[in-house]
Amino acid sequence: MKSTKSHLHRKSLNPDWQGKDLNAEKSVLQEENSVDSGAEVTGTVTGEEDHAMAAEVTGEDGTKTVAVAVPRIGDKTDVHLKVKPHPKFKEIYQVKLEDGSQRLATRNLTPGLRVYGERLFKFKNVEYRVWDAFRSKLAGAIIKGVQNVPIEPAFKVLYLGAASGTTPSHVSDIVSESGHVFCVEFAQRSIRDLVNNVAAYRTNISPMLEDARLPERYAMFISGKVDTIYCDVAQPEQAKLLVDNADVFLKPQGWIMLACKSQSIDVTMDPNAVYRQEANVLRSRGFDVKEIVDLEPYDKAHAMIVAQRK
Ligand code: SAM
After folding, report:
1. Given the CA of residue 135, which atom of ligand 1 is nearest to it?
2. What confidence tens digit (pLDDT) does each residue in 21-37 have?
């Protein structure tokens, strides 16, 4: 079947659509509408012009593939933006947008590719990804003034509750090619998006379809110890689950970050009491709790707890 432009209808990579048929192999098309595979492309056009586009492609043998067209955004330098390194944290940047508002950003390890519809921009020949604090608790914690972010270039990070890769992709940017992010996620749909949309393009991400309550099941996939464990699983026993993983994977004096959702633990308790209770679980298992940062307004009834193994 011959492909023509008239067959090409596109959908932006919004969450409602992207999970529906991503089993198939993905191809990246560097030019808009440049599908030239002898396949028919179907779908519906939506989305902004400068967003990554995806479409379902039916091959001659009937197999379905998802094609992602990556427009050449970020080729122009955004002259009206100002970017400076974060004063405390390596490979995290502060950006002032055209309207004067402030955001965080990371250097894009995969230039031209977005993960969750975030804005890409170029400054002094480097492409950055705006890091949305309403979509990422780690970004929210940084804006709320967390003092310790134990995620740095060359670090090995175990990420529990990776979902479809929003925050893991920024962690991947920060640790860069010399570091690694081991991502554990037990929801099939989320891990499929993580694999197809993120890990396929980032060699420093290893996705694992596993239950974070059972670290022995993925121990063989993680060589050596990790510098930091980041945990965002929204489970009743978040702190216990995290420390169980730390006992297996964390270096001596290694760090943990727990994105604590009070409502997953007890909806009736005062959130601050829940955070203190979870912090005490960490202390009782040999951690020095450095800080507890409330994430409102970015995330209601959530806090980031940062601790280091004594
Ligand atoms: N950390 C992600 C981010 O910022 O991009 C969002 C994570 S979302 C709030 C919580 C995720 O934890 C969900 O995708 C859920 O499927 C996953 N999860 C919950 N319990 C889990 C478990 N026991 N093992 C692995 N993943 C789990």
Report:
1. 4
2. 222 223 222 222 222 33
Question: The whole model's pTM is what?
Answer: 0.79
CATH number at residue 123: 3.30.200.20
Last-in-domain residue among 114, 131, 148: 131
The boundaries of the domain holding residue 105 are: 82-131
pLDDT, tens digit, 9 for 90 and up, residues 265-292: 888 899 999 999 999 999 999 999 999 9
The CA-atom distances, in angstroms, between 182 and each of 155, 230, 286 are 11, 10, 23
Within a domain: 76? no
Yes or no: say if 122 and 136 are a contact pair by the CB < 8 Å rule: no
Lowest mean pLDDT among 55-69, 97-111, 157-171: 55-69
Q: Is 299 in the pocket of ligand 1 (CB under 6 A)?
A: no
Q: Is residue 126 part of a domain?
A: yes
The pick from 233, 242, 244, 302 for probing ligand 1's pocket by mutation, whose C-beta has the most ligand atoms within 8 angstroms, reads 233
Residue 36 CA, chain-centre distance (Å), reads 31
Q: How far apart are CA 103 and CA 120, in angstroms?
A: 12
- Do 184 and 45 sit in the same domain of this protein? no
Q: CA 165 to CA 183: how far, in whole Å? A: 9
Q: Do the Cβ atoms of 108 and 127 come closer than 8 Å? A: yes
**In which band, very low, low, confident or very high, does the pLDDT at 256 lie, cut at 50, 70 and 90?**
very high
Cβ neighbors of 215 (< 8 A, separation 6 or more) are: 244, 245, 247, 248, 249
Based on the fold, state whether residues 34 and 158 are members of the same structural domain: no
Number of compact structural domains in the chain: 3
Residue 75 maps to a domain = no
Are residue 217 and residue 152 in the same domain, yes or no? Answer: yes
Rg (CA), the chain: 20
Ligand 1 atom nearest residue 184's Cα = 25
Distances (CA, A) of 195 to 9, 66, 78: 24, 13, 30
Residues 165 and 122 in one domain: no
| pLDDT over threshold 70, residue 140 | yes
